[in-house]
Structures are given as C-alpha cells and as structure tokens.
Amino acid sequence: MVRWWDQIETVASQNVYLSKLAQVSSRSRTNPKLAILIYDSVLEKKFAAEIATFPHRFAVHSGEKLKSIESFAAFCERLNKASLDLPARQMTVVAMGGGSVGDFAGFFASVYKRGVRLVHVPSTWLAAIDSAHGGKTALNVAGVKNQIGTFYPADTVCLVKPLLDSSGDDRVVDAMGELAKIALIAGGAWVHRLETSRLEGRALLWKFLKPAVDSKLRIVQKDPNELKGLRQVLNLGHTMGHVIEALSGSSHGSAVAQGTFFALEYSRSTGRLSAAAFDRAMALMGHLGLAPAPRAFASKKIREALLADKKRSSVGRVTFIFLKGIGRTERVEVSIDALVLEARRQGWAR
Ligand SMILES: NC(=O)c1ccc[n+]([C@@H]2O[C@H](COP(=O)([O-])OP(=O)(O)OC[C@H]3O[C@@H](n4cnc5c(N)ncnc54)[C@H](O)[C@@H]3O)[C@@H](O)[C@H]2O)c1
C-alpha cells in the first residue's frame, strides 16, 4: 500500500508555479467538467473568466465562520440541490482561496464520496507558503479552532503569481509571520539568503516560496500524521498566536507573528536561546517588517483560550515550542499557569 506521506516528495514536486490562472486545469491535469470549484467570492470579479471555465462552481465567503459545522452542512445541502452527477473516482475538488477556503474545501474533499482528488490554488500568500501544503484540513467547533479535521494532502498545489499578487498588502504582512516561522524552525542556507535579501513584499515572498514550502514538507514527511510529535515544531508561535487570534480578532498571520515574538522572548528568558541567537531571530523578524505589539488581555481570558486549544497535552498543560537557535527547536510541556505568568511578564496579560 502506498501511504500518502511516501508521496510527499512527489507532492512537493507537483507544486506548479504558474504565470496564468488559466493554466491551472492543464498543469494540474484537471478536467474542469469533472471538477467542483470551491472559490472565495472576493475573486469573483477579478478572475471571472477563469472561474467560468469550471461549470460546477461554488462561491463561499472566507473566514472562520466558513470553517464551521453549520456552514459545512449548508454547503453539502447546496451541492445536493445542484444534483451533480460526477464520477467520484474521476472528480476533483479545486480549492481556490486563502487558508480558510483551503481548510474547508480540503476537509470537504477528504470526506465527500469517501475522498476525492484535491487541488489547491491558494490566493493568499499565507496559504501559498503554509496552509496549502502538508495535508491538514480543518473545521472549527463551537468557536474553537481546528477541532475537526483530516490529514489529506492535495494532489497538486498550483502557485499562481498573478493570483497571489492580486491580494492586498495586509495579506503580504500576514504571510511574513509564517515565512519567519518556517525560517526560524528550519534554518539552512536559504535562511542566510533571506536575511540578506534586498527584496521586499511580494517579490521577496515569491522568491522564498519554494525553499519555505520545501522546508515545511521535509518536517511533515518525518511525522505526516503528527503521531510522533515531530511535526509539532511547526506550531512555533501558534500557542500564543491562537490565543491572540481568538481574543483580538486579528488575522491568523499577524497573530502568529506576535505569538512568535512571545515564543522568542520566552525562549530567551528561560535560557534556551542565547542572546546572540535571540538578536539574530529578532533581526530576521524585523527584516520581514514585523514588530512586537503586545496588548494586555485579561489573564482569565488567556487561560480559557489556552484550555480550549487543541495543543493541550494533558490537564492544565500544553506542548510549547521553544527556539534553541536558528533551525533548532525544543518541545516542552508547560503548565498553563506558567504561560499566563510569562504572558504577564511580557505585557500580554493583566
Ligand atoms: N491547514 C493548515 O495547515 C493551516 C496552516 C495555517 C493556517 N491555516 C488556516 O488558514 C486560515 C488563515 O489563512 P488566510 O489568511 O489565507 O485566510 P482567509 O482565507 O480568511 O483569507 C484572508 C482574507 O483575504 C481575502 N482574500 C483571499 N484571497 C484574496 C485575493 N487574491 N485578493 C483579495 N483578497 C483575498 C479573503 O477573502 C479574506 O478576507 C485560518 O483559518 C488558519 O487556521 C491552516
């Protein structure tokens, strides 16, 4: 039996870098007539011609509400009403949108007719650099993020430069946090090039998309279904990031960037990260245009958000990812009390 993680190298090499959205069907070997296109409604006007090439197309509104069970059920009903008659083993779900659309459509593809072929066409830089790769799909339950999901990697991920370029400046900033995260976790020659690159914004993201994605996939391959804990290092910055996202309503990307600042300072203050390595990590974050911006939430709220997080390892404890150096991480079970204390020390809690 071929397991999907044996195919990650293939999946990585099936990242196709395209200069036109119109190439998606041919380069991903997708017959649009046998596909269900699930796309972010914000793309409707700008990419009307490309979207219209898919006869079975469904616009959705992006965001965390889309990733709810209610909206999933409503989508299934919408599909039933459309009475599509597509052969399950030949059909493809094409997900065109940011991370929320990808998580939703990926989950749908993984369970519809017991699993159909999936192609991701990320339309945000964050999705292109991170969420479209590695096979995690997700729905939220009762407002708690990513409580239901599957491991279901896309057959092909189409990285389309004009589509990504069409997203706004906020989306560029969102992706910088995830780029910094993978650079800090993975290290290596490409990170030196990133630290000294004179490129900025979209040009920088496009240039470093490939090494960033390859670095993520190398980690995923060691622990595709997160059974050994090795894949958890990708959660650097996410423990506090998810808390900040939940309590401030800020975007996933900017919350992860702030969560990464929290993790760097926590790593430094506990003696895991040397002053020199801390300075280098902070310089990298600054080079990508990121700056710490702590705002104090009620300690009680932080505690509640940490308790709801799925990274909780046992009662009252979470698995926290510390940085020990560029390219070196450590997984440690930390009590929620200790995290709240650290949040107070850093100005994130009152
Ligand atoms: N599965 C994973 O491994 C993984 C990893 C990281 C994040 N995520 C998930 O991804 C989501 C965050 O991703 P995101 O920031 O891409 O979210 P998103 O899908 O909510 O998109 C952010 C915003 O950008 C808009 N947008 C998308 N493409 C656009 C375009 N080309 N032009 C203009 N506007 C555009 C959307 O309408 C939305 O308003 C979260 O739900 C997070 O949990 C999943």
For the record, give the distance between the C-alpha atoms at the N and C termini, rounded to a whole number.
53 Å
The CATH class of the largest domain turns out to be Mainly Alpha
CATH architectural name of the largest domain:
Up-down Bundle
Approximately what portion of the residues adopt beta-strand conformation? Answer: 15-25%
**Would you count the extended β strands for me?**
11
Q: Counting H and I runs of at least 4 residues, what is the number of helices? A: 15
What is Rg? 20 Å
Strand order of the largest sheet: 1-8-5-4-2-3
Our count of domains comes out at 2
Taken in chain order, the helices and strands follow as HEHEHEHEHEHEEEHHHHHHHHEEEH
The CATH topology of the largest domain:
Dehydroquinate synthase-like, alpha domain
Q: How is the biggest beta sheet arranged?
A: 6 strands, parallel
Q: What would the average pLDDT be, to the nearest integer? A: 94
Q: Which percent range fits the helix content?
A: 40-55%
Ligand set = nicotinamide-adenine-dinucleotide
What is the CATH homologous superfamily assignment of the largest domain?
Dehydroquinate synthase-like - alpha domain
Strand-pairing-aware structural class: alpha/beta
Query: Which term fits the overall shape?
Result: globular
Assembly classification = single chain
Low-confidence stretches: none
